[in-house]
Amino acid sequence: MKKTILIAAAAALMGLAAQPAMAEVDGAKVFSKKCKMCHAIDRKKVGPAVKDMNTDTAVLKTTITEGRKSMPKFGSKLSEEEIDAVVSYLASQHQD
Ligand code: HEC
Questions:
Q1: Would you place residue 76 in the very low, low, confident or very high pLDDT band (cuts 50, 70, 90)?
Q2: How far apart are the C-alpha atoms of 13 and 41, rounded to whole Å?
Q3: Residue 9: is its pLDDT beyond 90?
Q4: Contacts of 39 (CB under 8 A, 6+ apart)
């Protein structure tokens, strides 16, 4: 009985471990975890509203990676994939 449970648990763990490697990073999730305290989509908080941000994704990426004034730098806190995902998310929220 115990052995069966152990085997089932091991199989479940292996299943879990095999999954995340291919999972895509969710930019919206990165945003709500790391950025939402200072940025909102359509109003100014500590930082500018997402819809008023620069539309050049290269500028967005540089600002997020290196920081600017009171905008913290995320180059060492987020992976390249996470930064790219959050940049696409910001770009998708632009309205004019
Ligand atoms: C501690 C508050 C704070 C956090 C957390 C924060 N920001 Fe900022 N952000 C700012 C401030 C303040 C500015 C304005 C900087 C300036 O005056 O140049 C800014 C500016 C920016 C800009 C530049 C906008 C433009 O038009 O050039 C981008 C892009 C940006 N933030 C994205 C993000 C992202 C993405 C995150 C999360 C990974 C994040 N910020 C987290 C405060 C923050």
A1: very high
A2: 38
A3: no
A4: 31, 45, 46, 47, 48, 49, 50
**79 near 23, Cβ under 8 Å?**
no
| Joined tokens for residue 18 | 């095999």
**What confidence tens digit (pLDDT) does each residue in 22-32 have?**
578 999 999 99
Pocket (CB within 6 angstroms of ligand 1): 34-35, 37-39, 46-48, 53-54, 59-60, 63-64, 68-72, 74, 86
Tokens read off for 62: 């540089």
Q: Determine the length of the chain.
A: 96
| Ligand 1 atom with least separation from CA of 54 | 26
In tens, the pLDDT along 36-53 reads: 999 999 999 999 999 999
Given a contact cutoff of 8 angstroms between Cβ atoms, the answer to whether 20 and 80 are in contact is: no
Side chain identity at residue 31, one-letter code: F
